[in-house]
Write a structure and sequence with these properties.
By secondary structure, this protein is of the alpha+beta class. The chain has 28 helices and eight strands.
């Protein structure tokens, strides 16, 4: 008769090295492999299966997944046939993790659903919590953050009464990371968990879990811009990984260091760490890790001006991101692709990428709205059914009650009156809360009007937005717009000799006065770029092309006039005098909101913008230079040909024209005198 598993010396030996699994999984593999090899599944199936799950866990811990599918293929069917629920659930969870790492999300989900069913039927709390964590990861991958958070909280409830073993701390490490990763408001809760688990890992010298905890900790420190602390935590993680010769952990933390240095703008340091990580990811055939490494590498190469190398690094992963990654990851890839093409003067490719980016962002926004709508609908449906049940229950009670006398009727009347009083009180409270909410909304609206909209948009457009007629939230589209660039000549050099107060006074004076001129001509300030201004005519408030061109030229003339007035004041107060170049072009551009959930800008992108900027760069000081697209709407006396110029990014010479200043303008009056 075979020995029972719980009395087997080999099982006791295996349990003794459980902590070794979390401190040095490489050494633990030797013990588990020995038990797995010498145990006969025919004589002691339970021990053999437990050894298999521990051996797989060890391989996962060191990042060597080559043996995992072999062990799974030998054990899964036997675990199901033996009805060993604990081992079967763990093996299915490991199958899920393996398939997920290979990008087989459908197969991974099927394995997880089967593990969840077994764990719940046989009431295995650790396995249930583990399944919930992986379900949370999948929900997050699909963009369902609220569902993921709910699953994590349910996992914490399941673990609440579980023994505080090493496995408990390992799962709490994952929960702490997910809580913050899903919702930045959970940072205090995550910090509290990390304070507890890192102390435990250090105390018990659990290098493997210590490496993971420090890496996770560093990750969300980076998200909150605590960059120096993040660098320190990644380095601690690497030291833990080196102690157990965990190559994958070293690579993962090097990738993290690269991203932090990238965020600090130190792109050479970033490339050093990213390139240290890449060979290890390649060794383990981690396609997801390689894709993200090369995406980050392309971003740093772009910032260093190595655009050809950046494009090569990026495009080889395009099929992967299009077929396997979640929408926000594909949006990040597309944004980098667009930026590289724009930097390389590939206007067609850049425009195509920006258009795709806008579609992806609209899709992400729609999916979040749909998720919110579904959640509200579910809550409403539950409440509706509860009310129906209460109503039926009340009707049944009424049918079973016989009114015996007037006293009962009077009593009910008094109860009804009391209920009415309570209802009125509740109504009054709700009304009060509605008033307070309305005041908050009105205050927010005033803040947006004063501090945001009025700074960049004409007054009449601000009113359209505040009355619900805004087009800023519309999806991106191609429109005919007129773009004006204005730049103070030699201002950058002047800053070397001017103090910060003088620079601030001159720039603020310049921007405030120019904004008034721009708004008077229905222009929209796209952005301030150092001492330059980019202005749009025809978006978001539509104007016919002719009106756009005429408004832009009037605006440019008035801006030059206003600069003459400002120069007189600056000469008296600061002893300074500046000149301004202006360039204008009209054409097709992609108009809309670009960016992410944390920051987005309403802007225009495309070749039209690039041409306008390059025309301004060619213009002489105190002059206005325009393209043929503008002069077709002007009287011949208003312009003169400046010549033909080869603009960067275009294959043909472009004729440019100088706008003559209005004869009645201060500029011409001053020149004549």
């Amino acid at each position: 008769m075979p020995a029972r598993a719980d009395s087997d010396p080999a099982l006791a030996e295996m349990e003794e090295v459980d902590d070794l699994l979390y401190s040095n999984p490489v050494q633990a593999i030797g013990v588990y492999q020995k038990i797995f090899d010498k145990t006969s599944p025919e004589k002691n199936l339970k021990l053999w299966l437990r050894a298999a799950t521990k051996l797989n866990s060890s391989y996962f811990h060191i990042g060597d997944l080559t043996q995992v599918p072999i062990i799974l293929s030998r054990t899964l069917d036997k675990a199901a046939a033996a009805q060993d629920s604990e081992s079967h659930a763990q093996l299915l969870i490991q199958q899920h993790a393996f398939l997920f790492s290979k990008g087989d999300f459908k197969g991974a989900q099927a394995a997880l659903e089967q593990a969840d069913r077994i764990a719940r039927e046989t009431k295995l709390p650790n396995s249930i919590a583990q399944v919930m964590m992986y379900q949370a990861r999948e929900a997050h991958r699909q963009g369902h953050s609220d569902e993921a958070l709910e699953l994590l909280h349910q996992a914490m409830v399941v673990l609440k009464d579980a023994p505080h073993s090493t496995r408990y701390y390992a799962m709490m490490n994952n929960i702490a990371f997910f809580l913050y990763d899903l919702n930045g408001q959970r940072i205090e809760e995550s910090l509290k968990i990390y304070a507890e688990i890192t102390e435990y890992f250090d105390q018990h010298k659990l290098h493997y879990l210590g490496a993971i905890a420090y890496e996770n900790y560093a990750s969300f420190l980076g998200k909150t811009d605590q960059l120096e602390k993040a660098l320190d935590s990644y380095r601690r993680s690497i030291r833990h990984s080196e102690a157990i010769q965990d190559e994958y952990g070293i690579a993962s933390s090097n990738q993290g260091l690269g991203l932090i240095f990238q965020k600090k703008g130190q792109h050479k340091e970033a490339l050093h760490h990213l390139r240290n990580a890449r060979p290890i990811f390649a060794k383990f055939d981690d396609q997801s890790g390689l894709a993200n490494i090369d995406l980050a590498t392309a971003q740093s190469l772009l910032q260093l001006g190595l655009t050809e190398e950046a494009l090569h690094q990026l495009l080889k992963w395009k099929p992967y991101f299009e077929q396997r990654s979640r929408p926000d990851a594909l949006a990040e890839f597309t944004q980098v692709e667009a930026a590289i093409h724009e930097k390389m003067d590939h206007p067609v490719e850049a425009l195509r990428a920006y258009k795709k980016l806008s579609e992806l962002q609209a899709s992400i926004f729609d999916s979040k709205k749909q998720e919110l709508a579904n959640r509200y609908y579910t809550e409403f449906e539950v409440e509706r059914r509860n009310q129906e049940n209460l109503k039926l229950e009340h009707q049944n009670r009424l049918q079973s009650v016989t009114i015996e006398n007037q006293e009962k009727l009077a009593l009910r009347t008094r109860l009804a009156l009391a209920a009415a009083v309570v209802a009125l009180a509740v109504l009054a409270y709700s009304f009060r809360r509605t008033q307070l909410s309305r005041r908050k909304i009105e205050g927010l609206q005033r803040y947006i009007e004063t501090n945001v909209l009025q700074r960049f948009l004409p007054p009449e457009l601000v009113q359209e937005i505040l009355t619900g007629k805004s087009r800023l939230d519309d999806r991106t589209k191609t429109e005919t717009v007129t773009v004006l660039f204005a730049d103070l000549c030699q201002f950058t050099r002047a800053t070397d000799r001017l103090g910060p107060e003088t620079i601030s006074h001159i720039l603020n004076d310049f921007f405030i006065n120019m904004s008034d001129v721009i708004f008077a001509e229905r222009g929209t300030i796209d952005k301030f770029i150092g001492d330059a201004i980019m202005v749009i005519f025809g978006a978001p408030s539509p104007l016919p092309p002719e009106e756009q061109a005429l408004a832009a030229v009037r605006c440019a003339r008035k801006m030059q006039d206003k600069l003459l007035e400002l120069n007189k004041a600056w000469e008296l107060s600061e002893g300074q005098h500046f000149e301004m170049r202006i360039g204008i072009h009209q054409g097709q551009a992609v108009v809309g909101t670009f960016g992410g959930s944390r920051r987005s800008d309403y802007t225009v992108v495309g070749t039209t913008v690039n041409i306008a900027a390059r025309v301004e760069n060619i213009a002489d000081p105190n002059s206005i230079l325009v393209t043929e697209a503008i002069i077709r709407f002007l009287h011949p006396a208003e312009f003169s040909q400046r010549g033909h110029f080869r603009l960067r990014g275009l294959d043909v010479d472009v004729p440019l024209f100088r706008i003559e200043q209005d004869q009645k303008s201060p500029a011409n009056i001053e020149a004549a005198s």
